[in-house]
Amino acid sequence: MLRRQRQIRVQVHKLMDAGLFAMAFWLAHQLRAVWKFEFFWERPEIQPFQEYLWMLAIIAPISPLLLGMQGFYDRPLLAARSQTA
Questions:
Q1: Where are the alpha helices (DSSP H) in the chain?
Q2: Predicted TM-score (pTM) of this structure
Q3: How far is CA 18 from the centre of its chain?
Q4: Which pLDDT score is estimated for 65?
Q5: Distance in angstroms (rounded) separating the CA atoms of residues 25 and 52
């Protein structure tokens, strides 16, 4: 019973992680497009986000796979904080 609950929780966390990666990608685009940081050099204009949607279709499904390959979802239930970090 607990194993099934853990599997469901891991699946939910994978979906949330994919959403976080997608949101981070969108936020990075917004920061660069709206707030024009020109500290060291002049940056060219950035394309609208619709031009980068194909990358979002790659980033969202790949991010949980990469985290899984790194062992991010294989932690024990009661792990030490140092091991979690």
A1: 2-34, 53-69, 81-84
A2: 0.76
A3: 5
A4: 93
A5: 10
What one-character-per-residue DSSP string does 10-25 give? HHHHHHHHHHHHHHHH
pLDDT the model gives residue 78: 73
Helix axes 2-34 and 53-69, enclosed angle (nearest 10): 140
Residues 6 or more apart in contact with residue 83 via CB below 8 angstroms: 75
| Distance, CA of 68 to CA of 19 (rounded, Å) | 15
Pick the range with the lowest mean pLDDT from 7-11, 22-26, 72-76: 72-76
Look at residue 61 and tell me whether its pLDDT is greater than 70.
Answer: yes
Q: How wide is the angle at C-alpha 84 spanned by C-alphas 66 and 69, nearest 5°?
A: 15
- 3-state class (DSSP) for residue 78: coil
> Which residue has tokens 């062992």?
71
Q: Copy the structure tokens of residue 74.
A: 């294989």
Residue partners of 19: CB distance under 8 A and separation at least 6? 60
